[in-house]
Write a structure and sequence with these properties.
The protein is of the alpha+beta class. Helix content is about 25%, strand content about 35%. The protein has one domain (about 10-80): Alpha-Beta Plaits, CATH 3.30.70.260. It has helices at about 25-35, 65-70, and strands spanning about 10-20, 40-45, 50-55, 75-80.
């Protein structure tokens, strides 16, 4: 799936590619909530098998939060763009 999105000044952009199954978005957002990270924008695109979400957060992120995103069951790939 493809996503086109504008840049948000002062934010960090994260990508999360996952199997398109129920509960993934809830798990992703729980990681941000548990780590006191505010989501300033979120873009999701899916097909039958794969989901691709781009998340802008407006605070410094921690390596622990990134590790938790990568550890979510169903994650294919997770990374920081900027």
């Amino acid at each position: 799936p493809e996503v086109a999105l504008p840049e948000h000044a002062g934010s960090h952009r994260l990508l999360h590619i996952h199997h398109n199954v129920p509960g993934i978005m809830s798990a992703i957002n729980n990681v941000f909530s548990e780590n006191n990270l505010n989501v300033s924008a979120q873009y999701l695109q899916t097909n039958d098998a794969i989901g691709y979400v781009v998340i802008d957060i407006d605070a410094e992120y921690s390596d622990m939060a990134l590790a938790k995103l990568a550890a979510i069951e169903g994650t294919i790939r997770s990374r920081v763009l900027f």
